[in-house]
Amino acid sequence: MDILLIAGLWLDGSAWDDVVPTLESLGHRPVPLTLPGQGDGAASATLDDQVAAVLAAIDAAPEKPMVVGHSAACTLAWLAADARPEKVAKVVLIGGFPAADGEPYADLFEAKDGVMPFPGWGPFEGPDSADLDEEARRSIAAAAIPVPTGVTKGLVRLVDERRFDVPVVLVCPEFTPAQAQGWIGAGDVPELAKAKHVDFVDIDSGHWPMVSEPTELARLLGS
């Protein structure tokens, strides 16, 4: 199966480098995506540009792909399911939840000169980053790409309710499946509350399992 891999904010396709070999050994064709504005140098990129890049990868796949979104890119994966419900085999969400219609994509931290830079590790202290050693933290921070505000402030638009028929797997790293189910049940994640097929998978990691637990993450994705 083709597995489209979409990393979260500040990351490009290389974030998946340690995940790809195991997926290939399991017989899959991983396709890490480098998004407009997150690795291609397009500082003027918009959320629509990123959605278009994901849709192009789906349309180029020889058969229905699995679409994997990490962190903020969980919303990108869900937007893809909304735009191509008949062409997506499954959506996998890692450490995040899809935004609802009309919400900003990821307007989370202060922007400077038209981009939102990585804010440092302060906001991520605790379960998010507890499993990252100093070398991993330095590596992630050094490679972090400021994300254009045309992406982060872009409004999510969801139009096709057939997205709720697409199977979803929620991979739970820094939170537990029970916590995720509680948030969904409380109405905090309306999109997943309406999804008809949601499975929950636990992984013992922080927010970046592709860095700290790449082999285990690949096995979960490839199983």
From TrEMBL:
Gene3D superfamilies recorded: alpha/beta hydrolase (3.40.50.1820)
Any keyword Aminoacyl-tRNA synthetase? no
Q: InterPro entries annotated for this entry? A: AB_hydrolase_1, AB_hydrolase_fold, AB_hydrolase_sf
- Give the matching SUPFAM superfamilies: alpha/beta-Hydrolases
AB hydrolase-1 domain boundaries:
3-219
A Pfam family annotated for this UniProt entry? Abhydrolase_6
Check the record and name the PANTHER family matching this protein: MONOACYLGLYCEROL LIPASE
GO terms assigned for molecular function: hydrolase activity
Quote the protein name from its UniProt record.
Alpha/beta hydrolase
- What are the record keywords, sorted? Hydrolase
Annotated organism of origin: Streptomyces sp. 900116325
